[in-house]
Amino acid sequence: MQNNPHITLITPDAPVSADTHGGRTKCLQRLVRLELPVPRTVGLSFDAVHKIARGVMPDMALLLSPFDTGELLCVRPSSEDPDWGGPGAILNIGMNDARYLELSDRLGQEAAASLYARFVHSYSVLVARLDPDVFDEIGMEGQASLSAALAAYEDETDEIFPQDPAVQLGEVLRSMARAWEGTSARLLRQGKGAPADAGLGLVVQSMALGFGAGECGSGVLQLVDGQTGLMQLTGRYLSQSQGRDALDGGVEALFLERDPRGPSLEDLAPDAFEALIGHATLMRAKLREEMQVEFVIEDGRVHLLDGVRVARTPRAAVRIAVRLAEDGIITRQEALMRVPPSALNELLHKQVDRTRPRDLVGRGVAASPGAATGRIVFSAAEAQASAARGEACVLVRRETSPEDVRGMHAANAVLTERGGMTSHAAVIGRGIGLPCVVGATEMRFQMRKQMLTTRDGRVFKAGDVITVDGTHGEVLAGEVAMLEATLDDAFQTLLGWADAERDIGIRANADTPADAKAAKMFLAQGIGLCRTEHMFFDDDRLTVMREMIFADNSEDRRAALERLLPVQRADFTELFCTMAGLPVCIRLLDPPLHEFLPSDHAGHRALAEALNLPLSNVTRRVEAMEEYNPMLGMRGVRLGITVPEIYDMQARAIFEAAILAGEAGAPIVPEIMIPLVSAKREVELVKMRIDMVAAAVRSETNASFDYKLGVMVETPRAALRAHDIAETASFLSFGTNDLTQMTYGLSRDDAGRFMSAYVNQGVFPEDPFHTLDVDGVGELLILGAKRGRKTRPDLVLSMCGEHGGNPESIAFCRAAGFDYVSCSPFRVPVARLAAAQLAIIDKLE
Ligand code: PEP
Ligand code: MG
Q1: Looking at the predicted structure, is the pLDDT value of residue 552 above 80?
Q2: How far is 342 from 829, CA to CA, in rounded Å?
Q3: 411 within 8 A of 429, measured Cβ to Cβ
Q4: Which residues does a 6 A CB cutoff place in the pocket of ligand 1?
Q5: Residue 736 C-alpha to ligand 1 middle, in angstroms?
């Protein structure tokens, strides 16, 4: 039998593999190789089980040949990946009237009756497919239960309960094989990622009963806590039990280790306890994984029925991987490969404990991970007032704009009706680590009435408490149980190992000193994008900014900019000092000036007052500046060309800040980046002026400094003309948010409305604002990179759009020879790990 690949006694060298017999069979072989006390087991291959489902039964005599006559058996599923599930195990096969009498003598009548009753029950429901209700009133223990179960079977089937063990086993195999091939089971496992033709293996194992004289029972044991990942003996044990009895929430299982609170396995069967710990330790070392041991004790002797990889939370996964590497069981590279990068998201933020009850009231796009609870507020000002009172709040907006940024900083979470992965709320949320759900279109947002109405008509008003789960895109009523964020030693250790492996740089997008501190904390290698517009939204600056926008002539504009210069200089100095010598790339002003102006009547009036102008004048000018399509209008470098004084002021602030930072011990070569370029001449014109500013600052201060000028590639034309543009740029940074918007002709702020329909119908495989479109936008990236490097081989290439933090985009950028990616600070750890994994995979190949 040993060499029959389809019905195989599991010995150390039996021809079995996870691909042909399933993970459980393979694991049992590993345990057999370690000479652990595994009951005799026969593995049936995927092929054999497939045939059984089609009615072609295996040679039952051959299958039963390794087992003693009269031995009870169990059958368990063995799918390729344990997560794909499978039919439940069936125990005590072979139980019949004769065996009952025999076991009554050996174990006592009650125990024998229980084993028989259990088998009749599971056979009736799972194999004969009798209605489970029939057994509702019938227990599992003792003779009365047995008689009732047998009578129920006979009543329902008009047949005597099958007595031939070979018949019983054949029927069990058939029912399990067919259950696997059923439509609902197939859909269920496909939902977990299994292929349509995923196979099922089965193991037929000699039963260790768990009942009888001396200490008998069953349980599970593991050396580590699956929630925390800390080394801690965990598990359950129940005397006189089998199968999953000990795991049944209703029973009082024993402690494993000696415990003052009650009896323990260690007290009852110290030798068995010690043997189990030894077995579990050996499994950890040799299977190179934290395993849960499923065991049975018979009269003090231990049998190992199975070993299963310990289920773990993301935070436990990190601790376990690091600990296994520190103990020399796996390499550091293996530890890095064992943690999915996205799992780190759950460590960086508080999370909803999804094992606890929660009241789901709406869904949207999971735009920024983490979860927070607070009272609903409908404006940024209320969010700030709420923060001032020390009260947690959730900022609810139709969508957010730069004016809301301060409110977002004050809020604990943000919920918007509109938007997608690159909408304003999403980008800012991720940047500052604020949980955020956007595009919650199935809820009704009534901003004037300050009401939020759910699909089923529930109303939430200002002040009501909700929870925003930005990891899963859910809105929950009230408070819910949360898991704390943990940046523990294991996390830091793992990322330290990641940095030693990776070969692409990771910078952070950071606009404020707080962002820069987060970037530093997460060990970003610099700032890849500082969006300067966010610096102008503080009340005191905004008024001066508006004055500048309203200036009638260059002289007045300069006067207003003179007042902005010191604040910009202070911003940049702080940024440079925080980054302490790491590179910082500053983008010159990008948004249309119109975004800095008030949009409602009250705002116009306040502005008229501040600028001492008639209201009608203000309203007229605000209206005159409105654009039909502002994202394609007067913004980015177009501002730099037409209102050059703004960029002059910013360049001066950057240079003066660089000098100050150098004096403070943080020398820097600032990188200045021009947004929304589409033509070489734009770059030349801006460069000319910036060079002039640099020369002026040098001669005024007598200080020497250097700087780099680069271009943000956000328009398809900039990518196509990269060879021209590279003549005047020392770096190109691909802004894939705008580049995606312009390549598709798809509004990044409005696409949320139809994106799910597009993805559901397979028009787009994914939201291209979330997952880089490698076919279209990607081609522009490769083309731009190649053309740019042809002109200037040492051209520094990077990606700074929101895609920068995604593992798939990092793989793309690495392959295209980019120097670094830049992403929101809170995504830096994920990017560091993903980059390390890519480098390791390359090294292994
Ligand atoms: C981009 O367009 O990819 C980008 C990074 O700039 P922003 O998101 O500020 O437009
Ligand atoms: Mg952009």
Answers
A1: yes
A2: 10
A3: no
A4: 427, 529, 531, 590, 714, 735-738, 800-801
A5: 7
